[in-house]
Structure formats: structure tokens, C-alpha cells
Amino acid sequence: MLALARTALVTAAALALALAPAACQAELVHLDDDGGPGGGGGVADPDGGPGGGAGGGPCSPAKAQCNNCVDDDEDGLIDGDDPHCSGPADDDEGSFATGIPGDNRDPKKQDCFFDGNSGGCQVSTCCLLPEPCDEDTYGGYDPASCDRAADCAEECEPLTPPGCDCFGCCTVCAPDTDECFDILINPGISPDCTALDLASDDCVKCVKSAGCSGGGCDPEACVLCPGQTVDDLPPGCSGQNECPGGGSVCGTSADCQPDQFCSSGCCIGSVD
Ligand SMILES: [Ca+2]
Ligand SMILES: [Ca+2]
Ligand SMILES: [Ca+2]
User: What is the Cα–Cα distance from 74 to 240, expressed in whole angstroms?
Assistant: First the structure.
């Protein structure tokens, strides 16, 4: 009898765990609808790059769109709170493009998405997509390259926001509905995807790499996903977010170390 009760308890616990992700989504609080889709933004600096210092540190009007203290696309989320901002050098707050010339455009190979360049350690795009992978579009599937994701960790994990893997597979939550999806945000893969239309086929759904990650996001554990603010956290968090791995909580980049960037409420590293 005791054994039977114990089995039932374990089964109930397993069931609760299995149901947890769905419950999380259902309980998410909707954001204020005070922003609306913005008209502006989304255009990269025509002369190629952000002016006045691309690195982290406190926002200033001379810096790139994602670190200029302004809600460029008028969606209610400023700079690192905006899911379209991959880092302080990202000069395009209105889309998942980075506004950095030549950055992250390869549909077949993915490198560290958050280091502001293409190259370095790479995995096949198919490592990050559900099977079966369309190899005509995304190139050959090299399982060995998936294992090499861990080689990127030392360099890339410090630059990767919570909720994303190193290659730009991120749990992005729509600012207007707070519905969340795992999206490969690389504009080479999802060129027409924006946070306003995450459910569409324009936003290619992905499977995160286990080998290289900025840490998971989970509002139930008070860790914000890209696109969320503390207003989206459950009451138990008391309006305060937490960061994976004991990282530093921030409101803006001014709360972080001089070379860091505040992304979804957590200080992350940045590159110049
Ligand atoms: Ca901005
Ligand atoms: Ca914004
Ligand atoms: Ca962007």
C-alpha cells in the first residue's frame, strides 16, 4: 500500500514537471499595451556602423540604437530590454538585424551570434533546427559540428543574454501578447521575423544548443526572457528579476560594470 502511494506521488510529481512549461506560458502576465508597433527604427546606419563607441557601458545618445537610451522603434522597450537588441553594438532596435555590416548572414553555418562578427567557432544551422532539417536551405547536417558548440562557450557564453543559446536561438516573448517562442533570430535565417509576429513562419523555430548558452529564462523562476520586463513576472518575484548563474541584476547598463551591457535585466559582457 505504501509502495503504491509512493508510486502515485512520483507519477504526480513527474506529471507536474511535464506540465510546467505550459503552465508557465498560461500564467504569463500581459504587458501594458501602451507602446504599439512603432513606425521608425529598423534601418541600419547607412555609413556602416554605430557612431560614438559600440561597446557596453551606460547608454548615451551617440551610441548605437541598442545603447542610445531611446526607444527607437517605439514598442515600449528601451535598448537592452528590447528583444531586437542583441548587444550594445546592435544598431537596429526595430528588427533582429544587428545593423553591423557583414554580421551573421550565413544560412548554413552559425557562429557566436553576440560577438558582432561572423567567424570563429561554428555549428551547422541544422544543429539548431527540429528534425528533419531542410538541407537544401540550411546546408548539410554535420552532427560532429553540433558537439563543437562547447568550443564556443568560453568566448561566447559571457556575451549571450539569458534565454538564448550562443547561436541566436532565443526564447522571445512578444511585447504585446507575451506569448513566447524559441526563434532562430539570425536575420540570415529569419529575415522577416519581428517580435510582433513570432508565431508566423517568418520566425524560424529552433532547438537550443545545450553546449553553449547564456542560461535559461523562466519567469516562474523570476528570470526574464527576451521581450519581457519585471511587470511580466509572477507576484512571487515581488517585481524583481533574477539572473542565471548568479549574474548581476540591472535596470540599465549604468548598473553594470563599465564594459558590460544590461540585457533583459541582467549584466552581460560586450565586445567593441
Ligand atoms: Ca535604443
Ligand atoms: Ca524598443
Ligand atoms: Ca537588432
Answer: 24
Q: Residue 96 and residue 43: Cα distance in Å, rounded?
A: 11
Which numbered ligand comes closest to the C-alpha of 37? 2
**Size of the chain in residues:** 272
Indicate the pTM of the whole model: 0.79
Nine-digit cell at 2?
505504501
Q: 129 CA to middle of ligand 2, Å?
A: 28
How many other CB atoms are there within 10 angstroms of residue 202's CB atom? 13
Domain ranges, ordered by start, for the chain: 52-269
Read off the pLDDT of residues 194-248 as tens digits, 9 standing for 90 and up: 999 999 999 999 999 999 999 999 999 999 999 999 999 999 999 999 999 889 9
CA nearest 162: which of 36, 262, 54? Answer: 262
The chain-wide mean pLDDT, for the chain, equals: 82
Q: Which ligand is nearest to the CA of 74?
A: 2
Which ligand lies nearest to the CA atom of residue 64 in the structure? 1
**Residue 173 exposed, middle or buried by CB count within 10 Å (0-12, 13-18, 19+):** buried
**173: β partners:** 180
